Please model this.
Amino acid sequence: MTEPSKVIHVRNVGHEISENDLLQLFQPFGVITKLVMLRAKNQALLQMQDITSAANAMQFYTNVQPSIRGRNVYVQFSSHQELTTVDQNAQGRGDECFQALIQYQVRQSAVTARNSLQGRNIYDGCCQLDIQFSNLDELQVNYNNERSRDFTDPSLPSEQKGRSSQEVCMAFNQEPGQVGVMLQIISGYFFLSWGFLFCSHLKRNTMSNASAIAAAFGGGLPPGISGTNDRCTVLVSNLNPDRIDEDKLFNLFSIYGNIVRIKLLRNKPDHALVQMGDGFQAELAVHFLKGAMLFGKRLEVNFSKYSNITTGADTHEYTNSSLNRFNRNAAKNYRYCCSPTKMIHVSTLPQDITEEEIVAHLEEHGSVVNTKLFEMNGKKQALVMFENEEQATEALVCKHATPLAGLAIRISFSQLQGI
Model:
């Protein structure tokens, strides 16, 4: 029998399973420090911060069959006690150190970005950014593709026949310089494409960087998502007018993007307009919420003919709401987008909270089948499974951002199949 190890060996990892899927499967048990996808073998190696975290995961998945995107995966302790650089170079991905250059329009934007992001993780517990100022005054971009992009000139060709790979490497290996408009991302363990940094931290036009956002989904958009939609307003119909309001719609649609404003149509009480932050977020909402059940009604969610919602007495503004989820940790929030499930993830919980208190707070919305209280990065969180997706959705729209033992809790859908 293999001895306990920080490293977990995962088998039957199909091509449709992304790094993000695996991270979400194991994050409830502790910090993940490294991940290597062995695509040729349909396997993966994942290293937890300590043996205890790995043992807890193994013990849990001994009793519960782990499943990702409908495929059963099989886990065991690895014969490796530690993942090394050599292990990962064999795959050509994983814990490799990449570098990137990002140019802002003005110096202060670069200063603000570095001050805000230096030392931050892209994912919980991994992908730490090391950001310094570059000594280059200007970044010359000749091609718009997965390795470079000029967001001021979408007409650039995509073929990269100009600079040699040696020249590109020389540019990225420049020593950090004085304060300027250029940031140099010196290191960070990326499981994503080059363009993702632009997506996460720059003001962007959705159509010009849909491929960058795709990185949050493990390198490819979910089936049915084009990434090219530019319509930001969504029409929701077949609502239950006796139970719905703007804040409940906000709680549901904010899972897929920031909300600008919401309007209930008084002449059609079962209709509402929801304006999302951009076209990509609107497309996610339409894709994942079409046909969802809420308050006994099956929702119809489609793009509206209106490009935006005109501000008025009957509209609710959410542009500056602190509850918009994508103002921070946008990568993580994109990664967790999914259709409603019967499992919800509850965070921002008091340290002394009990499962009984959580159930008491949520059970008016349906039958709670199972719960699991755990700690991640020193913060209490919980998984709560309801009897069906509609009950879980009702709990989310009614109880997200409500106080529990003095703290406003945060609720989202979990893609885990069981507890």
The two ends are 26 Å apart (CA to CA). The chain is about 25% helix and 25% strand.
